[in-house]
């Protein structure tokens, strides 16, 4: 039997740079209220959201990703040619073939980097980060670009008062590269497919070609509704707060980090109430900075953690070298939590 | 040992006080969580989880929507506690 030469990776991996892109258009709750019977006060008290960004026709999944990635690459101090792989997590890019990652890799000027998309909902950033760490340590790529990007405004039912206000658009990206010290902890991740109905797309795409439109949902004008993301609010809240707090604690334990050692907590920006309850359930000490980017960004699914990370660093609320707990959770249901050193 | 109705109401009052800041004496059997006690649908989940731990009872999501008043919750816990 011939001996196969193994690949040579780095001892460890770290996040080297982060970048974000928020669409130009800021949408206040007043705009949401044009289509639903609710109030600014109700929306703020149930979600903590005051404004969100919605993308224009020009702010495509690819365009937003390229903007965010350019910043992350510059922040990492490397060039695009050094990137060996591009991982894109999204649920709102509507052309499935080819993967949007390939166009992004090309337009960024990578040297034929491996490129692919993943689907892991609001846990997509953590899933991508885990893959990237594996690639760097295993040696299949020296630098990996991980992008979380969504245009959830395209998947929002503006007549559903439970979700119309919730979602936003944007892109966040990080560069993961080699390190002599561990700066990304063990990932605690998993899936609970028995709860797949709690967050889902209202109608599968193939329902639209069957010919029988009687099963498709209609809007108030009687027109067929484009699919949207819907959720069972109370069930999601219970799972997110109480089950995910356990997962977050497991990630801290796995990394050997006590709450006292923690500087920053960056949960997926699902809902301010979930964030506040998680902080309470986890009994995080006062000194821990908590990301609350949702107030002005809404829920941007896979993009929310890198966007919140970038804003904390840009506003000086967190600094390079800080120890941060990140946790993503969402449709699947899926989740991923880990402890990282901020770039 | 199973809690009595009086103990359950007192326990729920403490839970509602902690979560919604409502005075314990306001939490009475006939009070609606939403209309009288400022407990919205998400706070209700927190109340339910705290009640589950305190009274050793499981309250599935499907049953939560039927618990409109403190009396509803008290009866549910009385009937389902381990």
Automatic annotation (TrEMBL), chain A:
<dbReference type="InterPro" id="IPR016039">
    <property type="entry name" value="Thiolase-like"/>
</dbReference>
<feature type="region of interest" description="ACP-binding">
    <location>
        <begin position="269"/>
        <end position="273"/>
    </location>
</feature>
<keyword id="KW-0511">Multifunctional enzyme</keyword>
<keyword id="KW-0808">Transferase</keyword>
<feature type="active site">
    <location>
        <position position="268"/>
    </location>
</feature>
<keyword id="KW-0276">Fatty acid metabolism</keyword>
<dbReference type="GO" id="GO:0005737">
    <property type="term" value="C:cytoplasm"/>
</dbReference>
<comment type="pathway">
    <text>Lipid metabolism; fatty acid biosynthesis.</text>
</comment>
<dbReference type="Pfam" id="PF08541">
    <property type="entry name" value="ACP_syn_III_C"/>
</dbReference>
<keyword id="KW-0275">Fatty acid biosynthesis</keyword>
<keyword id="KW-0444">Lipid biosynthesis</keyword>
<feature type="active site">
    <location>
        <position position="122"/>
    </location>
</feature>
<dbReference type="GO" id="GO:0004315">
    <property type="term" value="F:3-oxoacyl-[acyl-carrier-protein] synthase activity"/>
</dbReference>
<keyword id="KW-0963">Cytoplasm</keyword>
<dbReference type="InterPro" id="IPR013751">
    <property type="entry name" value="ACP_syn_III_N"/>
</dbReference>
<protein>
    <recommendedName>
        <fullName>Beta-ketoacyl-[acyl-carrier-protein] synthase III</fullName>
        <ecNumber>2.3.1.180</ecNumber>
    </recommendedName>
</protein>
<feature type="domain" description="Beta-ketoacyl-[acyl-carrier-protein] synthase III N-terminal">
    <location>
        <begin position="116"/>
        <end position="193"/>
    </location>
</feature>
<comment type="similarity">
    <text>Belongs to the thiolase-like superfamily. FabH family.</text>
</comment>
<dbReference type="InterPro" id="IPR004655">
    <property type="entry name" value="FabH"/>
</dbReference>
<comment type="function">
    <text>Catalyzes the condensation reaction of fatty acid synthesis by the addition to an acyl acceptor of two carbons from malonyl-ACP. Catalyzes the first condensation reaction which initiates fatty acid synthesis and may therefore play a role in governing the total rate of fatty acid production. Possesses both acetoacetyl-ACP synthase and acetyl transacylase activities. Its substrate specificity determines the biosynthesis of branched-chain and/or straight-chain of fatty acids.</text>
</comment>
<dbReference type="GO" id="GO:0006633">
    <property type="term" value="P:fatty acid biosynthetic process"/>
</dbReference>
<feature type="active site">
    <location>
        <position position="299"/>
    </location>
</feature>
From TrEMBL, chain B:
<comment type="function">
    <text>Acyl carrier protein involved in meromycolate extension.</text>
</comment>
<keyword id="KW-0275">Fatty acid biosynthesis</keyword>
<feature type="domain" description="Carrier">
    <location>
        <begin position="3"/>
        <end position="81"/>
    </location>
</feature>
<dbReference type="Pfam" id="PF00550">
    <property type="entry name" value="PP-binding"/>
</dbReference>
<comment type="pathway">
    <text>Lipid metabolism; fatty acid biosynthesis.</text>
</comment>
<keyword id="KW-0276">Fatty acid metabolism</keyword>
<keyword id="KW-0596">Phosphopantetheine</keyword>
<keyword id="KW-0963">Cytoplasm</keyword>
<keyword id="KW-0443">Lipid metabolism</keyword>
<keyword id="KW-0597">Phosphoprotein</keyword>
<dbReference type="InterPro" id="IPR036736">
    <property type="entry name" value="ACP-like_sf"/>
</dbReference>
<keyword id="KW-0444">Lipid biosynthesis</keyword>
<dbReference type="InterPro" id="IPR001633">
    <property type="entry name" value="EAL_dom"/>
</dbReference>
<dbReference type="InterPro" id="IPR003231">
    <property type="entry name" value="ACP"/>
</dbReference>
<feature type="domain" description="EAL">
    <location>
        <begin position="1"/>
        <end position="82"/>
    </location>
</feature>
<dbReference type="GO" id="GO:0000036">
    <property type="term" value="F:acyl carrier activity"/>
</dbReference>
<dbReference type="GO" id="GO:0016020">
    <property type="term" value="C:membrane"/>
</dbReference>
<dbReference type="InterPro" id="IPR009081">
    <property type="entry name" value="PP-bd_ACP"/>
</dbReference>
<feature type="modified residue" description="O-(pantetheine 4'-phosphoryl)serine">
    <location>
        <position position="41"/>
    </location>
</feature>
<comment type="similarity">
    <text>Belongs to the acyl carrier protein (ACP) family.</text>
</comment>
<comment type="function">
    <text>Carrier of the growing fatty acid chain in fatty acid biosynthesis.</text>
</comment>
<dbReference type="GO" id="GO:0009245">
    <property type="term" value="P:lipid A biosynthetic process"/>
</dbReference>
């Amino acid at each position: 039997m011939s001996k196969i030469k193994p690949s040579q990776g780095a001892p460890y991996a770290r996040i080297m740079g982060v970048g974000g892109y928020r669409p130009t258009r800021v949408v206040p709750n007043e705009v949401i209220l044009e289509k639903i019977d609710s109030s600014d006060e109700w929306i703020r008290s149930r979600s903590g959201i005051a404004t969100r960004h919605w993308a224009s026709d020009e702010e495509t999944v690819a365009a937003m990703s390229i903007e965010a990635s350019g910043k992350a690459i510059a922040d990492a101090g490397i060039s695009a040619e050094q990137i060996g792989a591009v991982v894109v997590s999204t649920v709102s890019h509507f052309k499935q073939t080819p993967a949007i990652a390939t166009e992004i890799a090309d337009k960024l000027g990578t040297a034929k980097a491996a490129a692919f998309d993943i689907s892991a909902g609001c846990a997509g950033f953590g899933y991508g980060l885990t893959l990237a760490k594996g690639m760097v340590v295993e040696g299949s790529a020296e630098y990996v670009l991980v992008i979380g990007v969504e245009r959830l405004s395209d998947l929002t039912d503006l007549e559903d008062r439970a979700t119309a206000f919730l979602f936003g658009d944007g892109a966040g990206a990080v560069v993961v590269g080699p390190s002599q010290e561990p700066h990304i902890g063990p990932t605690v991740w998993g899936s609970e497919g028995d709860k797949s109905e709690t967050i889902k797309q209202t109608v599968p795409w193939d329902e639209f070609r069957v010919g029988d439109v009687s099963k498709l949902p209609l809007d108030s004008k009687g027109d067929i509704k484009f699919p949207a993301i819907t959720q069972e609010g109370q069930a999601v809240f219970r799972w997110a707060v109480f089950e995910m707090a356990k997962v977050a604690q497991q990630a801290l334990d796995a990394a050997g980090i006590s709450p006292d050692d923690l500087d920053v907590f960056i949960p997926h920006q699902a809902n301010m109430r979930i964030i506040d309850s998680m902080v309470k359930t986890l009994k995080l000490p006062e000194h821990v900075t908590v990301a609350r980017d949702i107030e002005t960004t809404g829920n941007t699914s896979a993009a929310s953690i890198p966007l919140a990370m970038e804003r904390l660093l840009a506003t000086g609320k967190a600094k390079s070298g800080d120890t941060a707990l990140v946790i993503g959770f969402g449709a699947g249901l899926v989740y991923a939590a880990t402890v990282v050193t901020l770039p | 040992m199973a809690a009595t109705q009086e103990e359950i109401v007192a326990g729920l009052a403490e839970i509602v006080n902690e979560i919604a800041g409502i005075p314990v004496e306001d939490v009475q059997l006939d009070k609606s969580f939403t209309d009288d006690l400022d407990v919205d649908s998400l706070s209700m989940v927190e109340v339910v989880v705290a009640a589950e731990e305190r009274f050793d009872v499981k309250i599935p999501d499907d049953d939560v929507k039927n618990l409109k008043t403190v009396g509803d919750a008290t009866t549910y816990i009385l009937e389902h506690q381990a």
